[in-house]
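Example complex used in Figure S2.
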Amino acid sequence: MDFLTFMVIAIVALALGVWLYIVRQGDAEFEFIVDQRTDFRVDEQSQSAATFSCKIPFVNKGTQDGTIMDCYPRHLMPKEYYNKARIQSWLTLESNPRDDGYWEAIIIFKTTGDAIILTIRLEAKEGTIAEALKELPDLPVDIVYQVVARSDWYITKTRMTVPAEELRQAIANAGISAQTA
Amino acid sequence: MAELALQPVKTRILTPQDNIVDAIEEYARDMVGPDDVVSVAESVVAITQGRILRPEDMRPSFPARILNRFIAQKGSLSSIYGMQAAMDAEGTGRVIFAFIVGSLAKLAGRGGVFYELAGEQAALIDDVTGTMPPFDKHIVYGPANPSGVAEEIKKRLGCYGAAVADVNDLKRAAVLGVTSGLDPKRLAQILIDNPFGNASEQTPIVIIKNYAQAEAASRAAG
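Predicted assembly (403 residues):
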């Protein structure tokens, strides 16, 4: 074996070794477990508006620590489909809640997690919120998040649907609770 | 005789629109005396110098994508953006050289060689989450010309001296730049308990009161 052949083999072996190391090392991988969210409950209610929230756990199920640089909800309800209420949505980290809508970048260690509090507010455009809720269809919401870990940053989303009936039931339960109290 | 004391100074959030010396004058002028040393946190100096970058604005190179994989996860260079920032600051060749020599040294049982050889900025770069909002989504470099900044602070405030320091809650303190005549190691010792507090306390300036008198007394005593 001449020197050149030896060098080529050595470089290929080194590249293969580094590639295997990187593959084996893996990366962070986040999952927002919307199936395990809590039921929506009423945080605030008036004649014309209601604010609901639920907790959604998330986990870094990858093999590396990862940073959630940003996270926000995107509700998808065009006025052509439903025009009885103005809808707003926002979220915050359960373990370090903020009231400014800002997501503070956070490192989530591998195999650990936390939860977000997703809040949805509906304000009737006319009449009462109870009337507006009667016609509310199921509400699709995307949880959008930006991740950076060992590789390039990326933005991805987890989709969920908020059943309208669950919000109507939350209002009903809140009314019962208020009467009981 | 007056004793050495540490006096943290609260400020608003300082940004690249601020000048660090102006800010220190605005918040601390009335508290600083001729025997005092003014110390300022290095990350805040760097931010006011505009030495910050969003990962979205960076284009990591192939070497950065490989080398970051060999840095322990707690290190700021473990992300491709942190590693690229180090390469941009110190040169790709230097960082690769430091990595190769550092790896060999580690195999021989000596750690920390990579950071010794890769340059000061490699050790000072803070990855995202390393700084308080609104800079939590930025890579923050170490400050440029910290001794020059210290000299400017001294000149403007008429204090005994000034320093730019890198201190954290893990009992690690390093003084990156000082005015002439001050001992960086002695100052690091004084600041070891992190009087700057955590980021949310917003006290990036710490006045070391009566430093000149205390040091003179210490020298006289022994």
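The mean pLDDT of chain A is 94. Residues 3-25 of chain A form the longest helix (23 residues).
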